[in-house]
């Protein structure tokens, strides 16, 4: 199988998985649209609904024939031609019968309406037995009209064709309940299914025209930025829940193992780049919000620390800090704001997160003038002090498309790492961020595709190795330290 064929197959599998994921993600919207349409359909069906009552009588057609001269008899076997029996339907709907039924019942009804209310069916196993039914809006009306038909029809048959006569087998009875109207079920169901399908089509059309990064190939083809690694989507944790360590995350079957191994791969690439050029301060940012840059920064810091490096994570998002939430720490008035604004000693503000094996400098609150603080001489002095105590300084900053904080910090760091979450940021926002970083001579060493969902090419691959390395031949877990 050629490489091109393999890539095409992987792309098709990826598109199918992505479509399924999109449908599942938008399922509440589609169900809500279907529920609204269902209510509208119910209202429409009940508004146009009118109860229908049916009264029915059963009759036998008798054919009188001459047995001997002057003697007649009746033939009530099954030898009556069906064509002759069917002619009774036309007789029932004739003007004479219709007018006689109206007069007999003393009910004011339009002749054309009465014709639509009458129905004649032959018995399935006999050509001489027929059922005449009357359907009306009230039980009494249907019964009265059916009784009138029972009185009129035998007389009219005798008048029109003396050789035939009608005998009543089952007299009409007053209906007790209205007929079941399936339109009360079918109409709302059609409305709901139509709304569900229409919403699905609209969602898929909007997604088709959504210009976002969907795969690693999009990054290399459209952005021209070095790909440092891909981090798979993991189950989202609650905001008030502590960040999982890489050690505990690894124990999460398959997806956790994949995430940890990819973090290590990103770590290896950064260390390889740092061997060619000085990389100590790394700015980690994203084009827009909610792309997972804080989580990536903390997990990458753990991976570097587990390789014997001294790492400090600086929360430089002074507008919406998140690091303290992830590690469940108190974001007091110390931290970065205390250093830059109050002149505190950095040793008082940089704390050791022993659970993760890294140093952390929290934001110290929220500031309304972060750009001025980052542009001050104290920011440079603070980073120089960190250089003496740490091998890597990872700075978490606000998204570049929203505010200019990251652009100011980029002049103080050795490298910039861009976090891109699958199907979140528009491509033009990412391109603009990369271009602006280039204008400021920032060294964008690469990007990380975060929250990537493609089981066929990523998680499926690592799951087999998880079984091989993480689950020994005995079937018992062999846990090893990272």
Protein model, in words:
This protein has 482 residues and is of the alpha/beta class. It folds into 3 domains: 14-49 and 182-208, no CATH class; 53-170, Alpha-Beta Plaits; 216-470, Rossmann fold. It is 50% helix and 18% strand. The protein contains 19 helices and 13 strands. The strands form 2 sheets. Strands 6-13-12-7-11-8-10-9 form an 8-stranded mixed β-sheet, with helices on both faces. Strands 1, 2, 3, 4 and 5 form a 5-stranded antiparallel β-sheet that branches. Helix 2 runs antiparallel to helix 7 (183-208) and helix 10 (255-276) crosses helix 11 (293-305). The chain is rod-shaped, with a radius of gyration of 41 Å.
Alpha-beta classification: alpha/beta
Quaternary structure classification: single chain
The number of distinct helices, counting runs of at least 4 residues, comes to 19
CATH second-level architecture of the largest domain: 3-Layer(aba) Sandwich
Low-pLDDT windows of residues: 75-79, 455-467, 470-482
- CATH class of the largest domain, named Alpha Beta
Could you say how many structural domains there are in total?
A: 3
Mean pLDDT, rounded to whole units? 82
Radius of gyration: 41 Å
Number of strands: 13
Biggest sheet features: 8 strands, mixed
CATH topology of the largest domain: Rossmann fold
Considering the protein shown, what is the CATH homologous superfamily of the largest domain?
P-loop containing nucleotide triphosphate hydrolases
Question: What is the helix content?
Answer: 40-55%
So what's the overall shape? rod-shaped
Q: What spatial order of strands do you see in the largest sheet?
A: 6-13-12-7-11-8-10-9
Beta-strand percentage? 15-25%
Measured between the Cα atoms of the first and last residue, the distance is 37 Å
């Amino acid at each position: 199988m050629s490489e091109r064929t393999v890539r095409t197959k992987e792309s098709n599998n990826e598109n199918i998985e992505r479509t399924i994921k999109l449908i599942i993600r938008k399922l509440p919207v589609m169900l809500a649209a279907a529920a609204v349409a269902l209510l509208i359909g119910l209202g429409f069906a009940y508004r146009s609904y009118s109860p229908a009552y049916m009264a029915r009588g059963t009759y036998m057609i008798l054919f009188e024939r001459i047995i001997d001269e002057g003697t007649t008899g009746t033939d009530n076997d099954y030898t009556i031609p069906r064509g002759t029996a069917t002619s009774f339907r036309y007789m029932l709907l004739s003007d004479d019968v219709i007018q006689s039924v109206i007069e007999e019942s003393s009910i004011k009804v339009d002749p054309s309406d009465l014709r639509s209310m009458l129905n004649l069916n032959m018995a399935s196993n006999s050509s001489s037995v027929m059922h005449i039914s009357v359907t009306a809006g009230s039980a009494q009306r249907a019964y009265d009209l059916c009784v009138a038909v029972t009185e009129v029809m035998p007389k009219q048959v005798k008048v029109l064709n003396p050789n035939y006569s009608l005998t009543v087998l089952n007299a009409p009875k007053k209906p007790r309940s209205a007929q079941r109207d399936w339109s009360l079920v079918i109409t709302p169901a059609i409305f709901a299914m139509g709304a569900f399908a229409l919403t699905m089509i609209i969602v898929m059309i909007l997604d088709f025209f959504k210009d976002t990064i969907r795969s690693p190939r999009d990054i290399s083809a459209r952005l021209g930025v070095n790909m440092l690694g891909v981090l798979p989507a993991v189950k989202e944790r609650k905001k008030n829940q502590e960040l999982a360590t890489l050690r505990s995350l690894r124990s999460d079957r398959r997806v956790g193992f994949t995430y940890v191994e990819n973090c290590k791969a990103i770590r290896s690439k950064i260390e390889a780049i740092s061997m060619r050029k000085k990389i100590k301060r790394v700015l980690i940012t994203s084009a827009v919000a909610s792309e997972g840059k804080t989580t990536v920064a903390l997990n990458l810091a753990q991976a570097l620390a587990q390789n014997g490096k001294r790492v400090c994570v600086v929360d430089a998002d002074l507008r919406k800090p998140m690091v303290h939430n992830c590690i469940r720490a108190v974001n007091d008035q110390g931290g970065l704001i205390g250093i830059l604004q109050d002149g505190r000693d950095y040793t008082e503000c940089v704390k050791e997160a022993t659970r993760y094996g890294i140093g952390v400098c929290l934001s110290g609150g929220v500031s309304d003038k972060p750009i001025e603080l980052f542009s001050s001489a104290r920011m440079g002095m603070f980073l120089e002090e960190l250089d003496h105590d740490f091998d890597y300084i990872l700075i978490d900053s606000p998204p570049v498309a929203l505010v200019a904080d990251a652009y100011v910090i980029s002049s103080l760091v050795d490298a910039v790492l861009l976090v891109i979450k699958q199907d979140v940021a528009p491509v033009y926002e990412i391109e603009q961020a990369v271009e602006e970083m280039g204008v400021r001579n920032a060294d964008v060493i690469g990007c990380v595709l975060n929250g990537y969902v493609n089981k066929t090419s990523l998680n499926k691959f690592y799951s087999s190795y998880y079984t091989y390395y993480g689950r020994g031949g005995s079937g018992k877990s062999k846990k090893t330290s990272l």
